[in-house]
Each structure stands twice: as structure tokens, then as C-alpha cells.
Amino acid sequence: MTVKMRVEHVSKIFGSKPKSIIPKVRDGMEKDQILEETGHTVGVYDASMDINQGEIFVIMGLSGSGKSTLIRCLNMLNTPTDGSIYVDDENIVEYSPAQLKKYRQDKIAMVFQHFGLFDHRTVLGNVEYGLEIRGVDKEERKKISMRNIEIVGLKGYEDKYPGELSGGMQQRVGLARALANDPDILLMDEPFSALDPLIRREMQLELLDIQERLQKTIIFITHDVNEAFKIGDRVAVMKNGKVEQIGTPEAILESPANEYIENFIADIDRSKILQAEHVMIKPNALVSLKDGLNVAVREMEENGISSVFVVDRQRHVQGIVTIDDAVNGIRLKKSLSDVITTDIHMVKKDEYVNDLIPKALDSKYPLAVLGEEDRLEGFILRVHVLAGLVGDDIEENQTSTQAVTI
Amino acid sequence: MEGNFPEIQLEIGKYVENFVLWLNDVLEPFFDFIFLIASRAILSIEAGLMFLPWWVFIAIIFVLGWRFKSITAGVLYAGFMFLVGTFGLWDVLMTTIAIVLTSVITSLLLGIPLGIWMAFSKKFSFVMRPLLDAMQTMPSFVYLIPAIFFFGLGNVAAVFATLIYALPPVIRLTDLAIRNVDSEVIESAESFGSSKWQMLKKVQLPQALPTIMAGVNQTTMMALAMVVIASMVGAGGLGELVLVSINRIDLALGFEAGISIVFLAILIDRVTGGVAERFQKHRRAD
């Protein structure tokens, strides 16, 4: 994985003599105290992070945490007071005005919380703006813009004015406008927080869809934990201008760095963030059809489990066999294929746990989790899915019940 | 007496007068040049208006009213102009319109760039603010005096006085409009790598246009008001007739000239207001 953007010790302080404030913050003076004594506002202090090519990197924090200030440093709408930002190994903080213009035109685009649309231009005119600034000729401009308008699902609205569209549609225009420049990096400053919850969910899914196709490097700001963990490949949590923790959603859920983050993620709905592969158990025992019933019984005995998945050579699931059926089968001299149960549910490994609930309720057996080419990668005990419904902790159940139920 | 003001005399009026006289001396060629251009402009506009057959002029007024307001408005404004003609004041009306147009066009040519400059330069804005306040609160008659110094009696002096009086609103509103463009809109233009000029041309001015048009409307109305007063320095047109009717205590003439000015004011206000609304059309309600 290559690093697209490297943020090193970036600080942004607002006021008349921002540089003089850095040592004070270093000495541990609090944000409020600095504001009171010097009139300077500490926006961001000593933020460092590596953002990888092609990932969605979410910066999460409450209002006043400095996340919007930080994202504006990444395209130099804010000039950092201290620190460096490397994009493709060039320090953009030291760019000349001409270089900066080129960087903004070619490499990076931004989507704004309140859309930042030009309401004197049509949808097409808005989407064309970046291309116009770069001097792309008229024909080409229109062609590229129409393609992007189509990507965001606004085909047919290109001659409308932003004022005539709903909030969700306006933000689609904002997204199309940013995408039209074909930037490597997409900055999104709370793009969905001005939208109502239903539209927001739809836009989140659509963003993930678009990302799958275009593979941009996306830096996404939000104050919503659920949103952050849902769409982020990695998440940075900010508080009072400082970065508190950076990690994958699972890593942060599993080991929050401090009490603040613990509280932050306390009311999060894990079943909507964790995917099947995060809660599945890797099978210790598997039986193949040609192994026969005796092998199946021995496997179950050795592992202390009461049922086992039966797979073929490519690890494609054929069914499941329980200990009772197996013992009966041996007595009646049946073969393994006679006694296996094929009535099992299979799920993809990237399905959200929340979406597994109906299947878990419906099934008597563990859910089989399939990975690439539908090979069996693991299984999920029903209790792990359903425990969430009564508020139990998934991780605890996972370890304690593993050996017993199957 | 004890309570009397001490005998300190600061003859500031004298200094200003001397300054204006000095200015007139030093810049005489410059003022002559301005005079030439301004009188040419007024004369050609007037000649142009006179050249138009009366019914063409009325048709133009109708179309303006119809396009920018409604068809009834078009009929109404055309009717107003026709009425002024029936008073026997057609030629005088054309003179007034010529002076107003010259003043307004000059005001916009000067005022919009000055407003833009104010929006971008704190220092310039700091200097201009009190100046604009003074320009707006100084009794408008006072401007007539330097106008006579510089340009003698006549229409050019009238345009000069009108200009000073009518300039502040368009400067102020241009400045305000540009500074008030939504910060996120500016940021988004900036984030695409716009140059300063592209930003001004493609984003700030178009976004500011509805407010600037409100300034144009105000400037035009003030110009019309001042043109009447400027008749005291020899401006022709409807104002001159008002002045004459006062001297002669001629109520009939006074009313005809007065009501003609009202008709013209309504026409100008509604049409420029309609243009401003047109620019506002696509904007969000908020």
C-alpha cells in the first residue's frame, strides 16, 4: 500500500501571532486558557497521519475538534502554522502560488458541508467549473461533465439551477463537480450532515459504490460515529485540535485508546459496522464428502463440537452434519452424503452483522461465511448475531462459546 | 463675557475654497478635457433620443416594462411617457433622461471598480468609508459650488454634482455584495485553483450582481433627484422648468413638470428593480 498523503506535525493556530503560540501548546497549556490569555485559537495541534492510496480515511470529531480546520490545510485553504504535508513526496506547504494553483487544479478536489455551489450557474455549469478553470475546451468540458452528472445519478437535471434541487441532489452536484476534475484526492467536509437521515444513508452507500469504481483517495470528515465507522477504511478521532487515535474501525472498537474514545463509541451500533468476517470463527474441523461418517465423528470428538461443515475439494460448502445424524448414519450403514443437512444459510464475508439477523433467526445451524469464489472461510454462531439484539457483547460470546455449540 | 467662546478662528471653509481654486488652476486642462467628453456624451445621448421618433421611444419603454415587469406595467409606463408628451414637455424630458443616463453610466463606470477595490483592500476601505459618509450627508446643494468652479454653468456641472451625490450607493453596495458572497462558495472556487481574476469574474461578480443591481437602482433614483436640484447650476430639462415655475409662482407649470418627474421616477425605479429581480431569479430563498 503506497502512502498518498503524509501529514507531519501539522498545527494551525488562528490569531495575529500564531507562531508564538506553538511553544505554549507544547508546554501543555489548554486551548481555553490560550484563547483567554492571548486571543489565539488553536485549531489543530501536532496532527500526523499517513493516508494511503485508494482508501477512505475518515477524520471524526465533535464540533470544535479541529477536523474542518485540518481538512482545509490539506488543500491549503488554511496555511498550516507549523508542519509539513507531503503529497506524492512533495511538501505542499512550501508550494509557490503557481504550484499551489496547479495542485488544486490537478490533484485535489473538495466537497463542502453546505455544498458551496455556484447558484448563478446551472448544474452543468457547476460541474464544468473546475474544467473551465483548467482551460479544457468547451466540447470536452461538456462531455466529461455529462459523464459525471450521470455517475451521481443526475442525468436530465443538467440544465436546472441548484436552487431548484433538493439538498440531496445539490450534494450530488457538489460530488459531480469534484469528480469532474478527476482528482487523485477527494476531500469531503461533512458532506452528508446537512441531509436528512434517509438521504444520508442513501448517499453513503452511493459514495461507497462510486469509490469501488473510481478508487480515489478520500478524506472524509464527520461528527457521526456511525457514519465514520461505516464508510471509513481507517478512522482518526480528533479532540480539541489533537488526534487521539488512528486505526481501522474494528481496531478502535476493540481497543479504544482512552476513555474519551470509549465514551464516543459507547452508543454505537456495532452490528451496523461489523461485517460477517469480523465476527466469524475460523473452522478447526472440516470434513470432505469422501472422508465418510467415521472421519466426521472423529473430527467432532477431537474438537469437542456437535456439528461440522462438509466441503468439497474447492472448499465449497456441501452441507452440515450433526453428531446425532452421524452416529445414526453409522448404525444404519448410510454414507455421509445421505445424512448431511443442506438446509443452511450462507452469507458473504462483507455482509453487515445487522443484515444477518433474519437469517440467524431462520436457521437452526451456524451460518457459513463465504469468501472469494464462494469458498468457506468461517462460520458464525447464531448466538453471536442474535446476542446483539439483547445488547450482549459479541467478542465475549465468541470466545466462551466457540468450542461448545458446534 | 466669561461664557463666550474664545477668539480662536479656524477658517476651514476658506482653506477648502482655496484648495478647490488651486485644484481648478492646476488641473484646468484636465477639467477642460472632462468637460469636452461629458458635454459630448450628454449632447450625443440627447441627440440620439431626439432622433428617435416619439412612438419608437414609447415602444421601447413598453417593451422594457413588459420584459422586466409585466404587460400591464409596459402599457402603464408607455402611457406615462405619452402623457408627458401631451404636456408639451417631450423635448425637455429627453434632456433630463440624457443627463440622468450620463450621470448613471459614469457613476457605474467609476463606482463598481471602486466598490470592488474597497472589498479587496482594507486600507482603501478605511479611507473611503468616511468619505462616502460625508458625500451622502453633505447637503446636495453644496456640490453645486465646486461644480461651477470646475465646469461653469450648464449640463456638465449638473452631471458632476449629480455624480458625487449618486456615487455612494453603488460603491457601498458593490463592496458589500462582494464581501457577502457565501464563504463556502469562495472556498469552493478557491479549492479548484481559480486565479484571483477568475474568482472575481466567474464567481464573486455574478454572485454579487443582484445586490449590485440594487445599488444601480438607488444610484439612478438619486441621480434623478439631483438632476432637479442641479437645474440651479444651469442644467436643462424638467428641473429647469420646476425652477422657472417657482420664480414665476406658476402652479400649472410646476405641477406638469413635477408630475413628469414622478412618472420618470416610477418608470426608472420599476424597470431597474425588475432587472435586479431577474438576476435574483435562480437564487435560493434563504
TrEMBL record, chain A:
<dbReference type="InterPro" id="IPR046342">
    <property type="entry name" value="CBS_dom_sf"/>
</dbReference>
<keyword id="KW-0997">Cell inner membrane</keyword>
<feature type="domain" description="CBS">
    <location>
        <begin position="280"/>
        <end position="339"/>
    </location>
</feature>
<keyword id="KW-0067">ATP-binding</keyword>
<keyword id="KW-0029">Amino-acid transport</keyword>
<dbReference type="Pfam" id="PF00571">
    <property type="entry name" value="CBS"/>
</dbReference>
<keyword id="KW-0547">Nucleotide-binding</keyword>
<dbReference type="Pfam" id="PF00005">
    <property type="entry name" value="ABC_tran"/>
</dbReference>
<dbReference type="InterPro" id="IPR027417">
    <property type="entry name" value="P-loop_NTPase"/>
</dbReference>
<dbReference type="InterPro" id="IPR000644">
    <property type="entry name" value="CBS_dom"/>
</dbReference>
<dbReference type="GO" id="GO:0005524">
    <property type="term" value="F:ATP binding"/>
</dbReference>
<keyword id="KW-0813">Transport</keyword>
<protein>
    <recommendedName>
        <fullName>Quaternary amine transport ATP-binding protein</fullName>
        <ecNumber>7.6.2.9</ecNumber>
    </recommendedName>
</protein>
<keyword id="KW-1003">Cell membrane</keyword>
<dbReference type="InterPro" id="IPR003439">
    <property type="entry name" value="ABC_transporter-like_ATP-bd"/>
</dbReference>
<keyword id="KW-0129">CBS domain</keyword>
<dbReference type="InterPro" id="IPR017871">
    <property type="entry name" value="ABC_transporter-like_CS"/>
</dbReference>
<dbReference type="InterPro" id="IPR005892">
    <property type="entry name" value="Gly-betaine_transp_ATP-bd"/>
</dbReference>
<keyword id="KW-0472">Membrane</keyword>
<feature type="domain" description="ABC transporter">
    <location>
        <begin position="29"/>
        <end position="265"/>
    </location>
</feature>
<dbReference type="InterPro" id="IPR051921">
    <property type="entry name" value="ABC_osmolyte_uptake_ATP-bind"/>
</dbReference>
<dbReference type="InterPro" id="IPR003593">
    <property type="entry name" value="AAA+_ATPase"/>
</dbReference>
From TrEMBL, chain B:
<feature type="transmembrane region" description="Helical">
    <location>
        <begin position="141"/>
        <end position="167"/>
    </location>
</feature>
<dbReference type="Pfam" id="PF00528">
    <property type="entry name" value="BPD_transp_1"/>
</dbReference>
<keyword id="KW-0472">Membrane</keyword>
<feature type="domain" description="ABC transmembrane type-1">
    <location>
        <begin position="93"/>
        <end position="272"/>
    </location>
</feature>
<protein>
    <submittedName>
        <fullName>Glycine/betaine ABC transporter permease</fullName>
    </submittedName>
</protein>
<keyword id="KW-1003">Cell membrane</keyword>
<feature type="transmembrane region" description="Helical">
    <location>
        <begin position="71"/>
        <end position="90"/>
    </location>
</feature>
<keyword id="KW-0812">Transmembrane</keyword>
<feature type="transmembrane region" description="Helical">
    <location>
        <begin position="221"/>
        <end position="244"/>
    </location>
</feature>
<feature type="transmembrane region" description="Helical">
    <location>
        <begin position="33"/>
        <end position="64"/>
    </location>
</feature>
<keyword id="KW-1133">Transmembrane helix</keyword>
<feature type="transmembrane region" description="Helical">
    <location>
        <begin position="251"/>
        <end position="268"/>
    </location>
</feature>
<dbReference type="InterPro" id="IPR000515">
    <property type="entry name" value="MetI-like"/>
</dbReference>
<keyword id="KW-0813">Transport</keyword>
<dbReference type="InterPro" id="IPR035906">
    <property type="entry name" value="MetI-like_sf"/>
</dbReference>
<comment type="similarity">
    <text>Belongs to the binding-protein-dependent transport system permease family.</text>
</comment>
<feature type="transmembrane region" description="Helical">
    <location>
        <begin position="96"/>
        <end position="120"/>
    </location>
</feature>
